[in-house]
Amino acid sequence: MDIIGYSERGMINSFFYELKYSREPLKILKDVLTYISFPFKKTDLLKSEDIIISAKVLIEQSFADFGTSDIVLLLDTSKEKYSIFLEAKVKTDSGRFHIDNVFNEFKKGIIGGGILHKKLKQSNLFAQIYYKMQFVDALRCGNLEDLKNGIEFPEYSTKSTRGLGKNKIVLKAINKITEYCNNVSYVILVPEVKSYLDDFFRNTLKKYEMTNKTYWNVEDWGYLSWSDIYKFCELNNFKDTLRNFEFNGNQIQDEYWLKHYRPEKKE
Q: In sequence order, which residues have a C-beta less than 8 Å from that of residue 131 and are 6 or more positions away?
């Protein structure tokens, strides 16, 4: 039986289920985390001596008005607890993915003010992380009741207040995350050349200043390219996920991707 997953949701489901049923899932999980680049962290996310004791993987977890996360990783290690919010994007047209274009849309949404068509689109990659940062920051401050009822946002938001509401499953996830919110990282997974992502983080993202008083700090942001996942799957013989790469074709593996950073196949 072949199970084929479409777009980023299908890819993520395939990858994490194949990881779960591998021989050493926690060791392999630690290995894949080393592929994440954090340009502004002073130390590695996990040190070589750190051991992942347990991991919870929340896929497509809803946070009500704060959006849905493609992946939330809650890690218990031999020393600390960590959480990672990961947002993934593929491209759906024949052109190449440009991280600058996605970020420019985010900036236009922030400065669009009350002009409806210029308000911040919640589907935007950076908006998705931005909203997660807001509720995590409120959790750190112990404002769970305020989060349930809704916290105010500037006029660029399509909603003047955003809250978690009363959905029991959403609140169950929040209760789990509360234990892990002292060490939070935010990661983007995109079909972009990794060297260009590094340049973007250091010379564009780092220099951007939010024009309002909401929380904004990119020190804990990191990035992955889909080529990292592809390479990892080849090295670890994740056959199902590799089949999904082939099925999804140019949404992830367009000619630019193949030319610049698809790993060379071994003879």
A: 63, 65, 66, 67, 122, 162
State how far the Cα of 171 lies from the Cα of 20, in Å rounded to an integer: 25
- Give the DSSP H/E element, type plus range, for residue 77: strand 68-77
The residue assigned the tokens 């050349």 is 193
Q: Which residues, including other chains, have CB under 8 Å from residue 239's CB and lie 6 or more apart?
A: none
In angstroms, the CA 219 to CA 216 distance is 9
At CA 161, angle to CA 155 and CA 162, rounded to 5? 120
Cα distance between residue 178 and residue 139, in whole Å:
7
Q: Give me 69's structure tokens.
A: 């996360």
| pLDDT-based confidence at residue 48 (cuts at 50, 70, 90) | confident
The sign of the CA dihedral 64, 69, 71, 76 is negative
For the stretch 74-95, pLDDT in tens is 999 998 999 999 999 998 766 7
pTM of the prediction?
A: 0.92
* Residue 265 confidence (pLDDT) above 90: no
Q: How far apart are CA 2 and CA 145, in angstroms?
A: 45
Q: How many helices (H) and strands (E) would you count in the chain?
A: 10, 7
pLDDT of res. 94? 66
Residue 130 and residue 132: Cα distance in Å, rounded? 5
Extents of the domains making up the chain = 7-261
Residue with tokens 């600058």: 100
Q: Would you say 215 and 134 are in contact if contact means Cβ atoms under 8 Å apart?
A: yes
Give tens-digit pLDDT for 116-154: 456 788 899 999 999 999 999 999 988 889 899 999 998
